[in-house]
Amino acid sequence: MSLIIGLTGGIASGKSTVSTYLKQKGIPIVDADKIAREVVEPDEDAYKKIVETFGEEVVTSDETLHRKRLGEIVFNDPLAREKLNKIVHPAVRQRMVEEKNRWLNEGYQTVVLDIPLLFESDLFHLVDKVLLVYVDEETQLSRLMARDQSTKEAALKRIQAQMPLKEKVERADAIISNNDVLEKTYEQIEQLISDWKICAPSP
Ligand SMILES: CC(C)(COP(=O)(O)OP(=O)(O)OC[C@H]1O[C@@H](n2cnc3c(N)ncnc32)[C@H](O)[C@@H]1O)[C@@H](O)C(=O)NCCC(=O)NCCS
Ligand SMILES: Nc1ncnc2c1ncn2[C@@H]1O[C@H](COP(=O)(O)OP(=O)(O)OP(=O)(O)O)[C@@H](O)[C@H]1O
Fold first, then answer.
1. Could you tell which of 64, 96, 117 is best to mutate to test the pocket of ligand 1, judged by most ligand atoms within 8 Å of the CB?
2. Record-annotated residues binding ATP (predicted)?
3. Minimal-distance CA residue to ligand 2 atom 11
4. Which of 77, 100, 111, 189 is the most exposed place for a label (fewest CB within 10 A)?
């Protein structure tokens, strides 16, 4: 029996921290953020649509996407964000499913789909269980500002582009609280591996 886990949370809640730990245990991770970068490389359809929609100002001198500039546009304008999501999300979903199926075909029984917008994009049908990484609002804001070297205003805009973490809590199958030191987070992951009988070893 396979187990597909949807790993989610808010921005800077600690999804990568959890997925990195699980990866070290030999569990395959399908990373939506990574795929979202791949599908907007210059030779991809999504790239062309983004440039048509947002103009040359979102392209750098080496023809790659100017992520900072595009981020400034879409995190300040819900309609622009909706347009970008409509271009990028279908391609991301398709590649996530392909990647997950490849791991299953190789004989892995547990695959983790790391999807920041699992709730917002209603992607429950892709997973068997939802694992939420939780932090309180203050911690989320300070970690986001520190990691991205961003202002409070910019960080809040990004947080507010997502469903509040407190609402996500109610719909998750399990929650990892990442407010404390990393050691405490790792302990909770170990407990979850045991509770959900997660099969770590490669086939
Ligand atoms: C706007 C973009 C260019 C900004 O790039 P940047 O390098 O600054 O951020 P990065 O991609 O690393 O995303 C960081 C985090 O922002 C949040 N985020 C990204 N896109 C969105 C979005 N459309 N809505 C809400 N939150 C988002 C996620 O929590 C993500 O983990 C980029 O985020 C993007 O292309 N977003 C659209 C695709 C998308 O929704 N990706 C998220 C998962 S599929
Ligand atoms: N328990 C912790 N204690 C201190 N710092 C932490 C802890 N967990 C994560 N961090 C830091 O907080 C930041 C956000 O963590 P991480 O990148 O894992 O979040 P994320 O949910 O994957 O973010 P994103 O949504 O942007 O992809 C990082 O700089 C990370 O090093």
1. 117
2. 12-17
3. 143
4. 77
97 part of a folded domain: yes
Q: State whether residue 176 is helix, strand or coil.
A: strand
Give the CATH number for residue 134: 3.40.50.300
Beta strands 129-134 and 110-114: pairing type? unpaired
Domain residue limits at 98: 3-36+93-195
Question: Computed from CA positions of residues 113, 167, 177, 129, in that sequence, does the dihedral angle turn out positive or negative?
Answer: negative
Answer whether residue 98 is part of any domain. Answer: yes
ipTM over 0.90: yes
How many domains is the chain partitioned into structurally?
Answer: 1
Q: Per residue in 105-153, pLDDT tens?
A: 999 999 999 999 999 999 999 999 999 999 999 999 999 999 999 999 9
99 within domain boundaries: yes
